[in-house]
Specification:
The complex is a heterodimer of chains A (164) and B (397). Chain A contains five helices and no strands. Chain A is mainly alpha-helical and 164 residues long. With 397 residues, chain B is of the alpha/beta class. Helices cover 44% and strands 17% of the residues of chain B. In chain B, the strands form two sheets. An eight-stranded mixed sheet of chain B has the order 3-4-2-1-5-6-7-8, with helices on both faces. In chain B, strands 11-10-9-12-13-14 form a six-stranded parallel sheet, with helices on both faces. Chain B is globular. Chains A and B meet through helix 1 and helix 5 of A and helix 2, strand 14, helix 13 and helix 14 of B.
Amino acid sequence: MPESNYRIDYDNLDVQELMRQVRAHAQQQDLLDPAPALDRAGAHARLQEYLGLDNDRPYELQRALALPDNWNLGPEDLQVSHPGPMGRLIRGIRTLLRPALKLLANADLPLYKQFKINVGLAAALSDLLEDNARLRKHLGQLSRRLERLESMAAAGDAADAEDR
Amino acid sequence: MRLGIVVQRYGVEITGGAEAHARLIAEHLAPRHSVTVLTTCARDYVSWRNDYRPGVHAVNGIPVYRFPVRRPRDPERFGRLQERVFHRQHTAREAQAWMEAQGPYAPRMLRWIRAYRRQFDYLICFSYRYWTTFHAMREVQGQGILVPTAEPDPAIEMPLFRSMFHDARAIMYNSPEEREMILEHAGSDQVPGVVVGVGIIEPPAPDAQRFRHQRGIDGPFLLYIGRIDANKGCAQLFDYYTRTHARLTAAGHKPPRLVLGGSAILEIPDHPDIVYLGRVSEQEKCDALAAATALVMPSFYESLSMVLLEAWALSRPVLANAHCAVLQGQVARSNGGLYYHNLGEFAESVRLLGEDERLGARLGANGASYYAHNYTWPVIEGKYEAMLEQLGAENGR
């Protein structure tokens, strides 16, 4: 008998409702495929790597993509404003006001972290696209091979049927 | 009525699903109508090699006209053309070349139909994607009743087939899922159609104990019947079963065995609880079904699945691959089994079916009721008769 926490109306079975319970039990009892858990752990590790505050990879990606000048950013760009006289004025005002602003909130670190997340996500997306292209090609090769094997095997099956 | 049955292969020894479907329909319409079968001399569905003698023969009392296949199929050339038209942009000419390579190429049959079509009220043509039905339907516009036996693969999306569905006099679908798929791709809403499927050969009286005794199998087991092949979902079945077995055993449960009956194309894992029976006779298949905890159907592509109906005819529940819309739809409509999308659902369903006999019995009873209401021969014949009557009334006959 199954565990009593299944609610089964044996006289009015609703398979779709029963399958909802099956799914819930499968998740609770950790009967899911362990491979996705390993994949998730690996993906998390990679994402942490992308978001690492000390690595250079997102910047290499920028160079590899050959983004136009005004898209190329570095951490210092959080601080840089307009070039020229206006920029100097803004920087001067910011220097005077920064101690007062920091009394209320320090936005520098969250902004920088958001910047790193954005660039890190772009790097992860680039990797995904590359993996996808490679898998698509591999799948095409496997499909063609399977069709050839199926043809050969079916010919053998038909020959066996004649022998019966 | 005078009915012609057009199908790519025909014979008692032909085990293909669509061909068996055509033969059963022919044999069940024959008592009330004049039925003639038009087919090829092919027995092998890969090469279409001529194995039967051409001419007129009787099969179970029904006249069968066999026409020779002019050239066998070249699997390599066909495979290359199929890769092109299924997965890349292609021209109408390339699609037509694919059809000609698909075969079975039997021009003499087409000439015969052209000359003698007036001898028939309707031609019931099986399996939309084969050369014989494709060209017969074009030849007899207004007289062609189509039994598509379609599966969700790239062929159904090809524009090549749209006019065939539009010009059919009627369409006899195997399932609501098949109808939905065809209407989506062909837009043939205006063509009269009905979901009918097919019945099964009356199973011999089953004896579960005889099977258990002869094969030495006791305890619960899942049963798979059919060709053991990757394109029948068996590779995934073996993967899911072996991992489920390990998990359930580690958690202190006793998993059911997996018993396989049919010809093996795929290597069967060497596992203490996987039992391979080899090919089985009809009697042994019924005995095994009667003894089984559940029939497992791992296929990703089915148009109907007659073995599913055979299980329900014997009041056995099924465990089906939910990635096949037809299988999931049948199980949901019947409440006659469970279905799985992934390993977790497969494992929990196996555990549940193995441990809850009452559940298995109720699911099996539901399946039997669904089968009785939808797939017994009086129901199937009734739907064909109703359609013929409707078409006759529309024709003013």
